[in-house]
Amino acid sequence: MTQSSEIPARIYTAALIVIGDEILSGRTQDKNIAQVASWLGVQGIRLKEVRVVSDEFPAIIEAVNALRLRNDYLFTTGGIGPTHDDITVDAVAEALGVPVIVHPEARAILEDYYATRGGLTDARLRMARVPEGAGLIPNRTSGAPGIHWGNIYIMAGVPMITAGMLDALTGTLEGGLPVLSETVGCWVGESEVAALLQATERAHDGVQIGSYPFFREGRTGSNFVVRCVDAEQLATCITALSSALEALGREPVLGGI
Amino acid sequence: MTQSSEIPARIYTAALIVIGDEILSGRTQDKNIAQVASWLGVQGIRLKEVRVVSDEFPAIIEAVNALRLRNDYLFTTGGIGPTHDDITVDAVAEALGVPVIVHPEARAILEDYYATRGGLTDARLRMARVPEGAGLIPNRTSGAPGIHWGNIYIMAGVPMITAGMLDALTGTLEGGLPVLSETVGCWVGESEVAALLQATERAHDGVQIGSYPFFREGRTGSNFVVRCVDAEQLATCITALSSALEALGREPVLGGI
Fold first, then answer.
1. What is the value of pTM for the model shown?
2. Domain B12-169: what homologous superfamily?
């Protein structure tokens, strides 16, 4: 997949707001950053920035307004359940300056879902509330749908439900060229090859090299991740990096260690 | 541990910046948010906000300057290694408007560490660079120390090394009352008890209740996490919540499910 590169390809970006005191207290290990990031990569969209904020109006509103304008897409996870600490919809609506309404289709979905589960109570009806003008994101796991308003995608916090919503969105967002990546591992300390890495990156336009050291079995090693939107440039850089490591007497391991 | 509560206790806050393309690409699952959050809780400091930013100067500088002034403490993880993509020190120095210098003690530590490991090369010497005026955070795991400048704590990205740096900082930061928490679990959908949760939280000043639903073994349950700085208030609220669940014919499980 090469591209004629007279005009640089448009880069699509996204931001993510993870909403929830449980992440900030350390009670819950976040899983959504990695899953949203990986999914975006496949859509050809780059996750540029993430904020984790508390279940408080000012924190959510500030983050929404800072991030929605400077990225192509803004995703949120968390805070769309039926309880008092679920304030994402109200906070996003306030950030957008629109009222909160009950979405008729969301209400119908919940009526159907809870028909055999005790009925649609006031608390459950909270999950049909959306910022005015919103569409819905299908929820294939449980009842309450996600919400789509302009370039904002409001999703659940429970990772399994988030995954289902991402799956429902697959292929629906305009993206650019996906970032391709390949890894070369090596039993070498990154400090021993720092100059080599920098020179290799500089010699290959449009390519980024990340260096990720590790310590295993009492030995020091590193994985070098080469990223690029062009498969040919990527392959050329991987070959150059591998040769340079070999020239130092170090064995490169394609795919990483 | 009760407090006479005429004057509300001072609340100490911290922010965290996670620096690294590997988190934003989804390649690496972040572990530092949860470990820094848990450690801060024990120090009596509340993690208020987290940002994950790329290995780029403008992103790091914006986050540093937004967060360092409005929190008692600012922590960063990542980007302090020897390679070209490690730019945290330079970016923080630029945010602070101070030059980068080689810290004599950091240089001595690295000289010693690399004496039997091939010597202190230019790349390795990069890890002795600090914003002028900085102190060091001991690194008990590998050579290069962390950095302390004003209320900013610059730590490694590799979670095991970060853990050692946090350990070295234990007890050195002024904090307030630690937030205590207890969990009541129940095999009940959170939407069935939403009103009860809200009423219980409102009836107990200074107490927050978070609701975390789960699906296991084909059944719906929830954990309700009650948080408070006062042990007596916490116990009173836990008792009230448990009684209210029992009154609904639902068995509360102390400690959570």
1. 0.93
2. MoaB/Mog-like domain (3.40.980.10)
